[in-house]
Amino acid sequence: MLHRNQKFPEIVRRTPPKTPADSRVRDFNEIYADFAASNGATQSSRCAQCGVPFCQSGCPLENAIPDWLKLAAEGRLEEAWRASEATSALPEICGRICPQDRLCEGACTLERAGWETVTIGSVERWLGDMAFKEGWIEPIRPVRERDASIGIVGSGPAGLAAADRLRGLGYAVTIYERQDRAGGLLMYGIPGFKLEKPVVQRRIDRLIESGVSFELGVEIGRDLSFEALRSRHQAVLLAAGVYAARRLAVPGCGTNGVVPALAYLTASNRKGLGDAVPEFESGALDARGRTVVVIGGGDTAMDCVRTAVRQGAASVTCLYRRDRDNMPGSAREVANAEEEGVVFDWLASPKAVHDAEGRVTAVRAIRTALSDPGPDGRRSIREMADSAYDCSADMVIEALGFEAEDLKAQFKTPDLAVRDDGTVWSAGATRATTLEGVFVAGDISRGASLVVWAVREGQDAAAEIHAWLGARQQVAA
User: What EC number(s) does the entry state (predicted)?
Assistant: First the structure.
């Protein structure tokens, strides 16, 4: 008889129910449901409980995945949640938006052995949602209050994760956010069909109930100088993210109708939150009835194409210079987009934007081919001779990635070391910058990356700030 925690030979992998494509494209609701309790426990029982859990090493947070799968399979659901929460400040969010196929589930021993991976992300989400529903998640009440405060610049995943851990250690925490809502990328960048905004807001509300302060609409360097910020706090964490969009650099790229991805997604999310969005109302950032071409192959591009479908675009095409197997976006998101009617034009690189009377009419593209993998495993691109063609469009969305803003200039901090790409330098494997008492985490440190990496670095930064403040106090004593 099989052990209750190693039932993969007899139980088939099942994901939670997914709304059919013809229904889900009518709104921005999340497309996946949570597991029913019995199904969640059953799917958890498929874990092989490996002696060397590759799923754990495949997770940037090094979550103790086999442990909470075992507990969930045994019906010890609150204990499973506690084990999940121990290593992640935002588990139910990561369970929704992590590309598990490239991380924990992709590393699963069962997947490699041909048995199909455990539904790790779905179980993580299910446990997190249950924890809120059952009241297991309460405001943070530190064992002791410490006589020090930390200022955090940015309220995205790195900032929220750091605030959670620092408040748990008893520090006073203030988060400075230049937008009118907290959440950063989670609130304004990721569409609701992947991450509904109440899921983000309940995490923010918990931090507020725990005593974390949020100063919204405050841009450091404009509304408050960086020098003044440092004088307010014993330590500062830079978790500002990267928001400078990479733009097309081809003839016609400035044509009316060519828009950056983040502006497009932010407008859509704000509209969903009930805000007045003039650029959406004018049609500039609304895809309804439009022939849309999205350029790029990452998760942001997938967010854009699926948003355009829901806005009622006449057609949506994703133009990407590599093939399906070599795109950076999640395979799951590509599959979802295809189900929703998105056309993928693989091995195609933009060369120009055509217009008529100042309005985009088409993207001139050229076919590409991939080389053999180089030493880093990446395949370079070469253009195919005499292969140019036009792809009709009256709206082009640039989803080419993001770069760091010039924080040195914005903060007036010439001694803050940054890399050539503008990301903030930190010493070795630490989160410490070249300014004493100033630390860094998330995309502003590593470049545009995954939410789970931002959570990891936010938590690491919190631990490092705690150690640094403790060392200072010992020296002062």
Answer: 1.4.1.13, 1.4.1.14
Cα gap 475→468, rounded to integer Å: 11
CATH for 149-242+404-476 (3.40.1190.20, 2.60.40.1120, 3.50.50.60, 3.10.290.10): 3.50.50.60
Angle between helices 157-168 and 197-209 (to 10 degrees): 30
Q: Where are the domains of the chain?
A: 21-134, 149-242+404-476, 245-402
Q: Look at the block and give the residue holding tokens 């947070």.
A: 61
Q: Give CA–CA dist 454/457, Å, rounded.
A: 5
Q: What is each CA distance from 197 to 18, 30, 182, 269, 348, in whole angstroms? A: 19, 10, 11, 9, 34
- CA 469 to CA 474: how far, in whole Å? 9
Q: Can you tell me the mean pLDDT for 438-449?
A: 96
For domain 245-402, the CATH architecture is 3-Layer(bba) Sandwich (3.50)
Task: In whole angstroms, give the CA distance from residue 271 to residue 274.
Answer: 5
| Distance from C-alpha of 214 to C-alpha of 176, rounded to nearest angstrom | 6
Cα angle, residue 103 at apex, residues 331 and 120 outer, rounded to 5°: 95
Q: Answer whether 149-242+404-476 and 245-402 agree in fold.
A: yes
Phi, psi angle pair for 368, to nearest 5°: -125, 165
In terms of Cα–Cα distance, which of 359, 338, 165 is closest to 259? 359
This prediction has a pTM of 0.95
CB 71 within 8 A of CB 59: no
How sure is the predictor about 1, in pLDDT bands with cuts at 50, 70 and 90?
very low
Burial 311-345 (b: 16+ CB within 10 A, else e): bebeebbbbbbbeeebbebbebbbebbebbebebb
Neighbours of 108 (CB within 10 A): 27
pLDDT at 130 over 90: yes
**Which phi and psi angles does 231 have, rounded to 5°?**
-70, -20
CATH number listed for the domain at residues 21-134: 1.10.1060.10
Mean pLDDT of 202-211: 98
